[in-house]
Every structure is written in structure tokens, then in C-alpha cells.
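retry 2 of 3: previous attempt timed out while embedding magnesium ion. Reduced batch size to 1 and resubmitted. Inputs unchanged:
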Amino acid sequence: MHIIESGNVAAASGVQLSGAQVIAAYPITPQTPLTEKLSELVDAGELNAQYIPVESEHSAMSVCIAASSAGTRAFTATSANGLLYMNEQLHWAAGARLPIVMCVVNRGIGAPWTVWNDHQDAMSQRDTGWIQLFCCDHQQIIDTVIQAFRLAETVRIPVMVCYDGYILSHTYMPFDIPESAAAGRFLPEFAPDWALDPACPANLNTVTLPDIRPNVRGETAPGYMEIRQNLHDDMRRAIDVVADTDAEFAQVFGRGGNPFIEPYRCEDAEYVAVAMGSLSYQLRDVIDVLRQEGLAIGVAGLRLYRPFPNRAVAEALSGKKGVIVFEKAVSYGYEGPLYADIKAALYDCAQRPAVHNYILGLGGREIKTDDLFDSLRTSCGADAPEAREPAFVGLKI
Amino acid sequence: MATNKTTILNLPEEELVHPGNRACAGCGLSIVYRTGLKALGRETILVVPPSCLTVLQGLYPIAATQLPCLNVTFASTAAAATGVLGALRARGKTDVQVAAWAGDGGTSDIGIQALSGACERGEDFIFICYDNEAYMNTGVQRSGTTPQHVLTTTTPITGKHQQKKDMPAIMAAHGIDYVATASAAYPLDLYDKIIKAKTISGPKYIHVHTPCPAGWGFSARYTVKIGQLAVETGLFDLYEQENGNFRLTGASQKLLGKKRKPVDEYFATQTRFKGLDTEKTRAIQEEVDQKWAAHEKAAAGIC
Ligand SMILES: Cc1ncc(C[n+]2csc(CCOP(=O)(O)OP(=O)(O)O)c2C)c(N)n1
Ligand code: SF4
Ligand SMILES: [Mg+2]
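retry 2 succeeded.
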């Protein structure tokens, strides 16, 4: 069924179709309408879930951690400072291998206060052990939420579904709501192989020593470090599972096909702009005009940020003359975090492209089409500078 | 009521806490936990934040208890209990109790926000705070419930300047149906209170005074004696507040109309009170006398 609704409602519809059993959330702009919609769906009996109006985001993630440990499908959503307030719990959820799904409606971080969009919130949580997927439009939001549960439950790693605050969360666009029977086929009921249960008692997340240690039956149990390596290895393996999940989704619903990178006019491109989220779609119009001017340029929207699909990135970008990374986040004191990752992924390529970095849109600063043109023309010209420092775009002072 | 009281003869024999756990010798928490789990029974899911109890429960892959237990972050205990309850409701399981166990720090300091939220939401769980009156797991630092003048590693010279936070009163102010205090020195009283808590729906809070030889500075063999002295001097009162009605119970109830032991008898048993002088002790005695005068009045029905 096609409807015209907001990105937050698209996310709520995805959660509804996914049959989340326990939902805990705390309001924060621009996530709030999603939380409201979910409580409305539960209150109206249209979503058979336990909705728990917690007193903080730390508690929202605690509820999800416990509900997931007790064998149910758990969901939450947040933005910006709410995400940061969860930080300890994000590590805990991933360390405990809980398939929680969370929407992160991307917003800048205080101080000073901002409620507007950038990606600093999600990027700052990069190393918490969560899978991070970015969406470009409303259809991707609903589709990615449904995929996220299946992905999380397959690899037992929590998944963040990130989408741009206001730009996607509060704008209205047409999108298709999949049939619930088809969604049910794609995402069967959660059937965990372990859960908190008096019939089968286990002590979860106990203190774990640096070294390995035998259990009461004399079998060797892993130490802390083996448990960590296991998470890392499974994260790397999750790259393939992201692709499989996307392929199977495409089979059922006819949408998808670009699990890692969504390319636009990249095949014959000499230059490729790279961005995450709605910005990659915004760039398409700019690329169309530059193409008319005769510049062989495309844009690649990166969908999966962690685990980082470095091979797919290298494949897509090696041999290009130039790669221009636009991002809404900074690793203070260094450069854009995505820029650093892209450069590292290209290190082994025979033909390494020049890579430029533009930081823009922080705290909702308007991203002007003209600024995108200027940046791309600067980076793609014959006399393109050897830029190694990120350039801030859109500054007015 | 007296006929319903559990005695050592009809206390369940089955042990749910294994012997040889990692608590210190003479640890009051060992008594509290052992008794508490007997009262809770096997159809229980435990939630535990970092504390001495985490250590008591053992190091992976060995556990000192036979109940399912979720170890959670320090501030999240009551929210995690909420999540377990939500999952149980979602799975249609109505016969499993959720019991959160936290130290005084995990309850009255870092965990108070989540606990307050869970009580306001009316979550159907039992929250047991074992109060050893400091952060013992990290090496005896002051907590909100450390009594005034006590020496800890963060109040090392002049003692703690502030009063002990009255956590049960804060819980009662949430309007929950059952708030009780108990002591490691009176395990059967604790047992009966947990049994009663199991019959009440909504949030239940039990605050257990828990002597700690390592942190309080006394010999491991005096744990029970010191716990009893705290009650007999009137410093720590055993009571229940059911549907808002306060009543002293057990050993505290028996003190009504009797002469209590002087507080310095209790202070003299522990090195943590070394900073007390006669003036400070007299001031505390006066406070205790005033509190008990109010108890006497209330018991006589005078308001
Ligand atoms: C967020 C966080 N801050 C600090 C700690 C360190 N920490 C672990 S246990 C503990 C003290 C626990 O005190 P209490 O709750 O009274 O339990 P006890 O150890 O006395 O039994 C502290 C400070 C932690 N684990 N997590
Ligand atoms: S420090 Fe105190 S509370 Fe902790 S295990 Fe030792 S005796 Fe028990
Ligand atoms: Mg303590």
C-alpha cells in the first residue's frame, strides 16, 4: 500500500510490521514523533507490543537489553544527546550479543544546543559494536527497519538504522508499506536459542577474567579477549549477511540490490562523490548538471558504515581519478571519520584516487547546491589541489 | 500474625546459593542473599548491578547461584527489571517473579533515577537493597547511605559530614504498596517480608541493613551481633509500610516500651566510628531518642 507520510511514520510502520514485542523510548527531537506514533499504535491495539515509557534513554536501552535477554524482539529510537546518554548501554547490548534494533534520527550534539541535523551522534558511537545502516529516503527507512531485525537476529549483533533528522524524519514522501503477510515471511517470529528462563538458569554477563578458565565440567570457556575477538569476527562476517539479507528482501519485495553502496552514474565516472544519508540523493541533481557540463562524475551513497564494507568501497572507487567525501561529522583534531575510512580502504588499490574531504551541514547548516557545485568543481578540475586537510563548506564568517 | 512466622525449623532446606562463593568471611550479604533466594524460590529472574554481589555470584563461567541472573550496568537495575517484566508479559509468562538486588550505591545513588521511574510506572517487581553503608566493591568509599561521621576511604580523616539518606522513606514517598526494612541479623524476618512481598503486585522495596566486616572494621565473627546491636540501640529500625501504614516489626517492635541499649555500644564495635567523640555520640543518641519517642506515640495511637 502506498501512502504519503513522514520518515518517522515510515520507521514506526517498519517496527509495526516487524512485530517488535517490547518497545521502550524517551522523547527527543527529532525522534519524538516516532515515539508518539509507536505509543499510539500500541494504545490503539494495532501493534501488540509492551510499550514502556521510561524516564531516560539510559533506561530505554536497559529495558531493551533486558527484554532481549529474556527472549523478545526489542526496539527503541533516539537522537543526539539521547544516543550519547545510552553510550554505556550500547557497548553492553553489543557485548551481550543482543539483536536489538534502534532508529537513530540523526541530529547534532551540544554544547551548544542544536536540534538540527548532522551525523555526529551516530559517528561518535561507531566503535560500540553496533551495525550502522544509513537511509536516504522514506522507503529505505521502512525497508531497512524490517531488514535490521532479521540481520540483527541472524548475527546476534544490534543494529542502528540511521536517518536524517528533519530532512527525512519530518518531511512527507510517498512510500510503499509492505503487506504484513510478506513481511512475516521475510521476518519470522523471534526464536532465540537462549533466554533468561528459570527452567534453564544462566548467569549472564558475569565478571570475566583476562585468561581462559574451565567450567564445572572441565571444559574451557573463553576469556574476555576471546569474547571480544568473537564479536569482531562476527561483525566482519555480518558484511556478507547484510548482502544476503538485502538480496532476500529484494526477492520478496522487489526493492534493494545495493546492500553497501548505492551508485548513481558511477560506471563510467572518473570522479565519485561519496556521502551517507539524504545528502547522497541531494548530490544526484548536482551530478546531473555536472554531467551536462561534460564532467564524468557519479555519486556513491554509503549505506553500511559499520561493519565497514572496505572491499566494496575499494572495488567501487579504485581506478577513479578522484573521490570526494562529503560528511556531516568531524573527528576533532583529525578529519572526517568517513574520509579516514575511505582512504584506508583505498590504500591497497593499485591505482589510488586522490581523495578530498568536505565537512558540511553541521548543526543543520543549510547545504546549498552552489556549495556542492563549487566543491566538486574544485576537486575535479585539472588543477585540483592536493588537498589533505578537510575543508569546511558553507561557513559564513 | 505470630503464627505465620517462619522459624528455623520450617525454613526451606534447599540452598539456591552455593557454598564457597567469593564473598568475604563473615559477609552479611551472604546471609541476606542465601535467605532471600530461599524466599524468592526457583521461579525467579534476578537482576544485579556491579557490587559485592557481582563478585559473590562468581566469575565466568562459574556461578554461585542456581537462579537465572542478568548482570547489568550500575545505573540500570530497575530499568532492566522492567525490561525482563516486559518480556515476560510479551511471552505470556505470569508465574515468574523478577527480583532486583542492588547495594546501597546502586540503589540510592547512581540507580535512584531508574528505580524512581520504575516505581512511578508501577512495575511488578521486588527491589532488595542490601545496605552495607558504603561502596564496598570499589574499596569502602562513602555512599548516600553512609551514616554521619563514618570513616571511609573518601571521608578518611574527619568522617562523612552529611546524614544518611533515608532511602526507604524516599521509596514510600512514591506511594508504592510495600516498603520494608530488614537486617542480615534477622534472616527469618527478612524471609517473611520477601514472602509477603511476593503476594503483593506492583513495586515492592525491601531495605536490608547488612554488616560488612571488611568495610566496617570488625572481626568476621561479630556480623550477626553487630546487626542486632544496630536494631537494639534503635539506630536501624525493622518495619513494614503496607499501603502507607507504618508498623515496627520483629525485634524493633519488641523494643517499644523498653529501654534501648545506648548507641555508643554499637559504635564501639567498629573501627569506622573511630572519629566519633562524646559530643557527636550524644547528638546521635538524642536523635535516636526523638525518633523513638515518635515511634512510642504512634504505637500508642497518639498522633
Ligand atoms: C557507571 C559505573 N560507575 C562506577 C562503577 C564502579 N563501581 C562498581 S561497584 C561500585 C560500588 C558499589 O557500591 P554498592 O552499590 O553500595 O554495592 P557494594 O559494593 O557496597 O556491595 C562502583 C562505584 C561502575 N561499575 N559503573
Ligand atoms: S566487602 Fe563487605 S559486603 Fe563486600 S563481600 Fe566483603 S564483607 Fe561482604
Ligand atoms: Mg554498599
